[in-house]
Amino acid sequence: MDTQATTEGYPSIGAMVEWDEDIGHSVYLRMSSTGFPRGLQAEKILSVFTNANGTRMFNIKFKDSPKVEQLAACEANKRIPHMVIEFYWDHLSLSPKSASGKP
């Protein structure tokens, strides 16, 4: 399987992640576009990270596709704002206040 990654091991924008049974972990596959131009619907946001360029990216699972694709947060905010809000809401963690009322 041919894989391609940018410097420091971070995948490039437009990359897809695929599970490789032979090596037992995910590998990045180069793609020219995300699932949206191919007519796919986003199913779930799996995770968020910041790439080497400082761009916030989401790993997104598309319906009817076995691959996890990376999408820039600015595009996700425009195309699937309800999923972005739901993702952050589900992953929000607030630190409890101490007895003195100070964090």
Automatic annotation (TrEMBL):
Residue span, Chromo shadow domain: 34-97
InterPro entries reported in the protein's UniProt record: Chromo-like_dom_sf (IPR016197), Chromo_shadow_dom (IPR008251)
GO cellular component: chromosome; nucleus
Subcellular location: Nucleus
Coiled-coil regions listed in the entry: none
Pfam family, one: Chromo_shadow
Record key words, sorted: Nucleus
Domain of life: Eukaryota
Name of the protein this chain belongs to: Heterochromatin protein 1L chromoshadow domain
Organism classification: Eukaryota, Metazoa, Ecdysozoa, Arthropoda, Hexapoda
Gene name linked to the record: Dere\HP1Lcsd
